[in-house]
Amino acid sequence: MIAGISFPYTLPLTPNSRLGPYEVLSLLGSGGMGEVYQAKDTRLDRTVAIKVLLKHLSSDSSLRERFDREARAISSLTHPHICALYDIGHQDGLDYLVMEYLEGESMADRVARGPLPVDQVLRYGIEIADALDKAHRQGLVHRDLKPGNIMLTKLGAKLLDFGLVKYTTTEELGQLTNLPTENRPLTQEGTILGTFQYMAPEQLEGREADARTDIFAFGAVLYEAATGRRAFHGASKASLIASIISGNPEPISVVQPLTPPALERVVQVCLAKDPDDRWQSAHDIAEELRWISEAGSQAGVASVVISRRKNRERLWLTAAIVVSLAAIALGGMLLKARSVVPRSLHASFVPAVGVSMSISQNDAASLTLSPDGRYLTFSGETSDSKKSLWLDRLDTGEMKPIIGTENGYGPFWSPDSRSLGFFAGGKLKKIDVNGGPAIALADAADGRGGTWSRDGIILFAGFWRDAIHRVSASGGAVTVVTRVDEEHGETTHRWPLFLPDGKRFIYLAGTHRAGTESELNGVYLSTLGSPGRKLLLRARSNVVLSGDYLLFVRNQYLLAQKFDMAKESPTGEPIRLAENVAEQLGFFRAVFGASDDGTLAYATGSASTKQRLLIFDRTAHSEQLAPPDDYLDGGLRLSPDGKRLAMVLGDPPDIWILDIARGARTRFTSHPMSDFLPTWSPDGKQIVFASDRRVGDELYIKRVDGLTQEQPFKSVKEGMLVPEDWSSDGRFIAAQLLDAKNPDGTGDIWIVPATGDAKPYPFIATEFKERAPLFSPDAKWLAFTSDETGKDELYVVPFPDRGEKRQLSTTGVTYFVWPPKGHEILYTTLDQTLMSIDFSHGQFGDPKPLFKFPALPVAFDSIDGQKIIVALPEKHEGAHVSIVTNALPR
Predict the structure, then answer these.
(1) Among the options 144, 392, 651, 725, which is catalytic?
(2) Is 501 in the active site?
(3) Which residues contact 453 (CB under 8 A, 6 or more apart)?
(4) pLDDT over 70 (residue 118)
(5) Which of 252, 519, 527, 722 has its CA 20 to 30 A from that of 269?
(6) Would you give the distance in Å from CA 698 to the centre of its chain?
(7) Are 595 and 371 in contact (CB under 8 A)?
(8) At 845, is the pLDDT very low, low, confident or very high (cuts 50, 70, 90)?
(9) Residues in Cβ contact with 399 at an 8 Å cutoff, skipping those fewer than 6 apart
């Protein structure tokens, strides 16, 4: 509930301890005033949050008296967007507050992933302004308004810690000029209780704070929500204070060009240095924001604020007319000579009957247009679950699968529009679209884009955390052409694009740290044979060159910006081509393509499918366990007692823990890098997980009660270890090795000793891809999948002394579990069937079907094989693909 990791003194409370009638359950976090715990009110049987104040606050009698007085005042403040204060108390030298328990994330956590859409900025802004107005009318001033004190819940924004913070004197402020440089949010304990980035000039100058002080902070919050950046910056507290007192933030429209001018004006007035020049009441701000939201385009608001339902209704209304004419009209528009003033044609793309199109995950890169504008590619799956790249010939309407691209993704075109490069089976391949075999050119474990020059050179990114490589279109040696600047936080180079001269190329360099507006995300230009590079623009998107325009996406807006190839520089302001364009943020990819002549294809809607979390019994009866969400593949892990579920959510992903009986979930990790694949210790007290937060320390371990921070566990120089299972005797962790430098070895299985100083070691390492190792309940067997037959099948080997390997399945395996309290292995097949293999008395039976799931599970787990928790894709409207000719200005 409360962000923050620092611990200013030894934690006074442990799970099951009590403060009056409140039973402490777990630590939620810590902040500038103290620690916050989840607790149970034993009288009312409700969950609450308890904040225990820092001892230096409790020991000051004047502070305690003022704290009690203001706490009583705020407890009488009732508003739907202010966190309710239920009670205050004092016990064993500790002062504490009892507050409403909120589920959600702080605005600080949300903004860390990037700026909010305009409609959300307006919605949350109205709610917070209303809350401020309510409090100000009762004479209460917040004095510490910041994103960390705003919770975003299903019911909207909630303001925390209202009226409970006071600031000290000018003498204490005078000490700030000598404070050292810091890279974290600037909060000085013992002097000013608050966060400097959001303080008004009058606070920093020691003058009295009033409601207009909150309005300044509110402007800083709106600025950060709209841009993903703090309004004021400084290398030290002294320089930060100088920036707030005399500087102005960069205009929002410079950072986010599509920000409504009316919203920018609201923020500018809030951030006026003189309180008399600001909005004089939060009520006025709320009314202004409501007018912007309701006025829509008349207020300069991007049309994303307008009801999406109405947009869909208009879309379907026009689609009935457009689709029937699309093939004929597109053919005519593409092949006829253009008139003096070319006219655009908009058409909807519809896959063939019985074929579903995917734009999720890797498939986000599969929607492309050939350079000559005649062909469109997409990732299609037939009713029998066979997936491949498909080709739609726009001039004739012919649509067909490209034989040889089974399970392929990430296509890119040869300059003559006759061949495709693509990724499949851990390889970079090429194929003639008019027929012929697919030819492997290079290893590529997990491709992230390619480009093909007129000189027969291909540049490609072969792994999700790697540089750009070069290979001949005829195959041969592979060389590295870029260097990922890991020292300064870069983690990936991807989506290369040759310029017409075949020497210069553009690519995305980025970081997996949270926030689409990170300074480390940028599109660069480089030249073959040259180590240098030039920043072209800030984006977290693939870039397409069409004519003399660069096309890219920011916050789901498809933009086009003129590109001067001679000066190697974008010129002018970006032009908006489309809104609500589907993005797969985890892949740094938006779903669009363009041809050389200005034909554009793009998808709107969602690039990912939420999943339903269900509990099935063996008769296929199911009940919903939690609301639909974006559960990461393979990220569901039950605790050994079956009462809690660790799961992976978010972008970048974090680990959460769900209390199954109560239906409440809490965040277990919170880091700007990815945390994934949680694995419980056999006693249920610890979780080991993988993280890409720091090279060399890929495994981390943390206590489940939250009383300690996560610690680096074990690592190997050969690559990244990801944990899969922990043996029942507690001695070993089974892991998979991910190795960017050896793509064919990305399926090796390693064993990590869980105790002592012994180093991890390879257990199964072959030319095939072995994955998902799981221990048997008695830790005498190890099960895993291998693709040595051409598809993933289930195998077992004795453990720890590896003996003869046994194949248990023959029809393919998509996911499997070995329930620790059962006597069987459960797995799913491609046709969604749940299979059981009996394992009694050390003998393995034949696979037997139990039932079919309604859809292919993303992940599932079970403790005893009787109750199975499953994440199933939720049915949704899916994406809508539009094709536009003459899309770019002339």
Answers:
(1) 144
(2) no
(3) 415, 459, 498, 502
(4) yes
(5) 519
(6) 19
(7) yes
(8) very high
(9) 351, 352, 355, 390, 391, 392, 393
